Hints:
The protein is mostly helical. The protein has a single domain (35-61, 102-321), classed as MetI-like fold (Orthogonal Bundle), CATH 1.10.3720. The chain contains 13 helices and no strands. α7 (158-172) packs across α8, α8 runs antiparallel to α11 (238-261) and α9 packs antiparallel against α10.
Amino acid sequence: xxxxxxxxxxxxxxxxxxxxxxxxxxxxxxxxxxxxxxxxxxxxxxxxxxxxxxxxxxxxxxxxxxxxxxxxxxxxxxxxxxxxxxxxxxxxxxxxxxxxxxxxxxxxxxxxxxxxxxxxxxxxxxxxxxxxxxxxxxxxxxxxxxxxxxxxxxxxxxxxxxxxxxxxxxxxxxxxxxxxxxxxxxxxxxxxxxxxxxxxxxxxxxxxxxxxxxxxxxxxxxxxxxxxxxxxxxxxxxxxxxxxxxxxxxxxxxxxxxxxxxxxxxxxxxxxxxxxxxxxxxxxxxxxxxxxxxxxxxxxxxxxxxxxxxxxxxxxxxxxxx
Length: 322
């Protein structure tokens, strides 16, 4: 029989397998299942996302640029919200003493508050994680020195440390800081106020992980300590760090708002939510409540939503509660 008469073999196809993409793995995870079951957490996540989108698209959504003097008119100052008897269009939430649209000021102030909060969390997290890795991995005197510094800092309230760093920066610069420099000072002050939690948490996790077999194997093949710490040990400490970062984001925003309310934060030319609350507080008893009420509600809503997310994440990543 010739080869032409033989039937061609049918190619065997591998059984269909589910793609192991990161999105599908995330949607199938226990963490996402816990997230879907908690209606309050879903609402908090949606509110937080809305706040972030409002901050990102503030220039597009704002009726006016509150930082452009050409768009401000004193004739439009202290106009009440639109639904009141004296309200005027397009000032939905009214205006302040400089004629700035309160809604526009809130959107731009929300952006400043989130930038300071996120950068402060990133800086404090990087500093605390680095010191925690070093203290936990090397131990001995290095661990003792770092942890004693952390213990001393815990005796001072974070807001006091932030005020101290802020005051030193202003005295060095002659008390004349541009808004961008002031933003950097606030990030530094917040970062130096909240690094201890990261350091203590990472240190305790590293002290457990460094005695495991995979670390001993990495040391045996001659990997340097920084590679072992960053590539092998650090990924096993991300759970608690994420919880701390989420909760500290709310604390960082509150700290920035407190500093700005006390006059040690963002200037009035580039106000955050805390600065807007300080400005509006001067007109509260004059009956112009909207200048302080709406920035305060925006700040409270943002903090509450982030705290609810942090509480859920803490419970979801706690193996004792699963």
